[in-house]
Write a structure and sequence with these properties.
4 copies of one chain form a homotetramer. By secondary structure, chain A is α/β, with parallel strands linked by helices. The first copy, chain A, contains 11 helices and 14 strands. Chain A has 2 domains: about 150 residues, Rossmann fold; about 190 residues, Dihydrodipicolinate Reductase, domain 2, CATH 3.30.360.10. Chains A, B, C, D: It holds the Pfam family Semialdhyde_dh.
């Protein structure tokens, strides 16, 4: 089992612990090599109850015994003062105020909520974590569950071949991406809904922030450059399909580099990609950050979404695109690498880089 | 009810009458204003039996009474000599020889099989029907069920705004497109299969043939020009989704015309589009060849696929594409306009234009 | 087209017209031979708006033109005074007060809500409509959508073979039975939920009320006898399955008559059954009140639920039961004969029997 | 990890190793504490190829590395001579001859095929394994995947309360029970098929053989008594539903004992049940052979089928049955305890009881 730098257990709290993402945090953190669940936070309706009674458990494994009888607390910073790391699975309507209050209380929040993603002081997933330097009391957010999955191969391609000029992505997204109760069965069985409110806009700008890196401002202050030095155009079309877990995406890209890389070169670059979180030793990053399938009909959500516990992404069908340069299929488990696992890797990276202090 | 030019019933035959597409032909032709089902053809295993016993009926309406007791024949031209029109729902492995034999016997075949689509003497759906002149004894094929749906709006756009320069389409196709038994339930429930063998290639070249029109060859012989005068690049990504009927497609296009039309201009052009088959009076063409939805989340296969008996196509979400010019969603009922209905319209057009002689 | 006794159009109102059942009432009544939609009632949130803007339409056919611009009213009796018949698709939490107020205003309500089903003065579907005599101002309710479907063949069997002694029914119910949004997609895709709150109890006692007929009380007042003269035990197990429309039920019955009828006798009795509503000429009763399938694998919801517009029930697989006497499969379209169609037939019967006065 | 009696690895072979059940055997045996996969057998089409190329792998975990390059053999006894145990996942059309040949070659076959289930010398699952004594060279078969799941609680009830007099079971079976390709997607999405050929008969007689135990014949030969001493009537109604894995069953039972046990007594008896295979230490039997749910809406296949790796069965909703005595819901994972896992437990039991000799 991996060891954290200081070799001791790190106390963590979970905000929104009874919700869909919160349940996933609980499941993953209960078996984490470094992190120990210390506080579970939820709404005042749940506060005061043992977790087993407060939660409507919807995971396919039973409630971990370590939290079964833990008393749920309200989401107030005073209950979380001993936690070196706070994970937030709060809904957007609650996350704004609560996460802000926690940040003001000098706590380190790793959030799955969308509220602070556009905040210029808030990094979006690990690529952006190193700089600008984070003050004590900060928020690191996940990207949208569809964005996270496909920027990982895009990042690998930019690392190998330089800037991407344009990217067209069509998603076929699982219903778990909409939370619970989420999408009514009547709307999705035997159906496709070719619209997810706000999703296309999120994919289009989040990609720029994540891939853009850090720019030096005129005043010496570092900022996110939104891929401005190498303007990147992104067009997303988002669809909901009758799949429980796992977002499938058809991606076409055009590179600035001419001639563009061949499909074989792209395949090799994806296989070779090692994210910093992997090389530095984050325990939740899998062996294959990107798994490249050779079979013609993979990846498929039902067969591939739980491989490596859903912490990697799968890519297949890398081939020429007659309109742009290269096209391929990406599968990402939206509830793992697209949500809770992503936050956990962010926190592991923050620990290893000393951004979070372990006492 | 529409009247055909000569006001009399036209005898038709159906090849492959017990198969999935054949059943659809039977259902539609049993209530057709001009055509009368005269012969049902199927394999030797079925020949000699009454239709009711030969068929494993899978439609949601009962077997039409007019064919219940009709004795199924082998697919030999001698049984079909009195038929002015032959519809073929044969599988590809049978269609090659049988359709060729029927053509040699001076019969007019309107086929849903893929075998002769690339034949330079064979028109692909109605756009290409007028020329080059067809000799007595000919085949007119449908395009692939995914192609037919999305070329109708492309055709409308080219008519209004001139040549399209490139088109990127991602499909989410219903399982009925694979016939019966087709896609195993184990492969498709709670899943997406991001691959359909040969489908992307078909969409990419069929689009060129259908939209390309007729060219004058050096030797005075007219040929299909495969959109060669205005080279069009098409990139298709084809996916199978857990939907019974109705192919949903996300389409992005770039026009040659600069500046390109606005989304509103595109919407208006789609609404205004009247295909020749409609203006000339083919009874199976619906009032709205293209129905344009204003709601943000339409078209959806389960709600919109049976509108107008599936004979039109639905378009929605017309908007700017940050990479190409315009993007939108298309829904086409693959078993109606994508298959049997398309052949029937081709035949109606052939009757009205005198290509098929009604005695 | 059928004629009502007085040959004139009958004005009807619809309560809860924007809901799932209300939309179904609108769809059916817009093409009804006798009834004319005169008023649409909904909540104060919808009141004052044209129907097109008030409703989130979920039917597979477009909103009927006759109601598109009709202004929705609040559910107050004063707006419905001219209506000879009121159909109610209200939710249970609204139906109690509103239907009571309408009854007090001497209106005739045909309701799909569950609130007054147990009321001793309220008949449950048409079998019970004739007696006890209804005063001016009354409510007739539908049974639960699962009950209605299977009591029709039970009624036919009791008519042919005398009292049933016990009945064990296991249902596989469509999600549309739970209304909209109803069952979350996350709960039902690739799943069965073996529990529907209150459903088993409803099936168990409603069956007794519907089949029980009318008893003479000691004081000369007629009451529903709840099958008390021939005690009938019913055991229901209710399951939700991933089906959009159509409840499938496996039914086993034991007869009081010894020896019990054979499967063939049961089949013949079901085919021969003509409910009073059919013999008296209700236009919404189909030709086959019960359609008996001979194929071994029918009825199936996807193939058979829309036959005869969903107004009949399908029965198949009539065979010996090794534990009770006879077992068979029933399919009933829960949104048609199980809901709106049932109310409409009740109202047609009330008109034909003079219970509702047509002015 | 459990130790087998002799503490050494036991070589096993798998017949039909490339099929659906065979893949499941491979997955489970690759991590088994006692058994080592020694030979993989398949049809002559696959023989000679490395397993990776011979198989169309459909599991959600990758092919175990230990078998990836193993060369597949034909199903001939000579290749399996060193195997102490042979598992058979053969299809019924191949199993008859091959299993017979293996038995004649003095091999011990644990089969999932149906061919020899009725054979009076062949035990059906572990309950019947001890007697009559098996000669060297024998077949032990699984029961049908639906039978296995529900006889486990029936067995527990008979152990606690004496003979069951009658049992009525309605199944909602997963499509994986039909193998691959199995049920076409077109037949099962948004549908229920109320018929599975031969399944009801299998459940009805297999139950008698499994629960019946061993009888002394007049000639001193022990035979299976088919529950003849306590005649048990079973009525099964089998349905296919759109679920990938996991058979859900609604069961009603009547006991011979009067008064019958209460629901609470039944619950306690199910929880307390320890099958012999568990008490004797078979490593594949889970802690909870029967897990009893207290929540009103469980078990559900999607949430509960993989609990304990699918090796236990789940029971819920234990309650009074108004027609028989007690009713409840059973969930059993048809591909685990209903198929491969059941054979493996049979083999473990045979090892521990010395029926299979470990050299």
């Amino acid at each position: 089992m991996s060891k954290n730098p200081d070799g001791k257990q790190i106390k963590v709290g979970i905000l929104g612990a009874t919700g869909t993402v919160g349940q996933r945090f609980v499941t993953l953190l209960a078996k984490h090599p470094w992190f120990t669940i210390h506080v579970l936070g939820a709404s005042s309706r749940s506060a005061g109850k043992p977790y087993t009674l407060a939660v409507m458990w919807k995971q396919t494994t039973p409630i971990p015994s370590v939290v079964r009888d833990m008393i749920v607390r309200e989401c107030h910073p005073k209950h979380f003062a001993e936690c070196a790391v706070i994970f937030s699975g709060l809904d957007a309507d609650a996350a704004g105020d609560i996460e802000s209050a926690f940040r003001s209380a000098d706590l380190a929040i790793f959030s799955n909520a969308k509220n602070y993603r556009r905040d210029p002081s808030v990094p979006l997933i690990q690529q952006a974590l190193q700089n600008p330097p984070l003050k004590k009391g900060f928020i690191v957010t996940n990207a949208n569950c569809s964005t996270t999955g496909y920027v990982i191969p895009l990042r690998a391609l930019e690392k190998a071949f330089g800037p991407i000029e344009s990217c067209l992505v069509t998603t076929m997204q699982a219903i778990s991406g909409a939370g619970y109760p989420g999408v009514p069965g009547l709307d999705i069985i035997d159906n496709v809904v070719p619209y997810i409110g706000g999703e296309e806009e999120k994919m289009e700008w989040e990609t720029l922030k994540i891939l853009g890196g850090i720019a030096d401002g005129d005043d010496g202050v570092k900022t996110f450059d939104m891929h401005a030095r190498h303007p990147l155009r992104v067009s997303a079309s988002c669809n909901r399909v009758p799949v429980i877990d796992g977002h499938t995406m058809c991606v076409s890209v055009r590179f600035q580099q001419k001639p563009p890389p061949s499909p074989q070169q792209v395949r090799e670059a994806l296989v070779a990609y090692t994210p910093e979180a992997q090389s530095i030793g984050c325990p939740s990053v899998p062996v294959h950050a990107i798994f490249v399938h050779e079979e013609p009909d993979r990846p498929q959500p039902r067969l591939d979404r739980y491989y490596q516990d859903g912490a990697g992404v799968s890519v297949g069908r890398v081939r020429q695109c007659p309109v742009l340069d290269i096209k391929f299929v990406v599968l990402a488990n939206n509830v793992s690498i697209g949500a809770a696992t992503s936050s956990i890797i962010n926190a592991e990276l923050a620990v290893l880089k000393g951004v979070v202090k372990v006492e």
